[in-house]
Automatic annotation (TrEMBL):
It comes from the Eukaryota. Keywords: Membrane, Transmembrane, Transmembrane helix. It comes from Triplophysa rosa. The lineage of its organism: Eukaryota, Metazoa, Chordata, Craniata, Vertebrata. The chain crosses the membrane at residues 42-66. Residues 75-92 have a biased composition (Polar residues). This is MHC class I protein. Residues 73-92 are annotated as: Disordered.
Length: 92
């Protein structure tokens, strides 16, 4: 897409009004003194994969932390009833 100012560069001017300047400054527009944003397709092509990679990384880290927290439990130090079933029960 060609900008209108590129087709008619002598028609479009930038007018600068500054408190410190005695009179207005006029600058003709050309490609050397006009800065434009890069094509948004390039930005999207960089940002979207980075966001997806961060989401996958966060999911993997979350899964690892969840598995570790759900893992082995501390063993009980008390004997269970089944281990003591061959011994007579004390009478109350």
């Amino acid at each position: 897409m060609v900008m209108e100012w590129k087709k008619n560069p002598d028609v479009y001017r930038c007018v600068i009004q500054h408190v410190g300047a005695e009179k207005e400054i006029f600058v003709l527009l050309n490609e050397n003194n006009v800065r434009t944003n890069p094509d948004s397709g390039v930005i999207i092509g960089i940002v979207v994969p980075c966001v997806v990679a961060l989401a996958v990384l966060a999911a993997v880290i979350g899964l690892v932390v969840w598995k570790k927290s759900k893992g082995y439990m501390k063993a009980s130090t008390q004997d269970s009833d089944s281990e003591n079933s061959d011994q007579p029960q004390p009478k109350a």
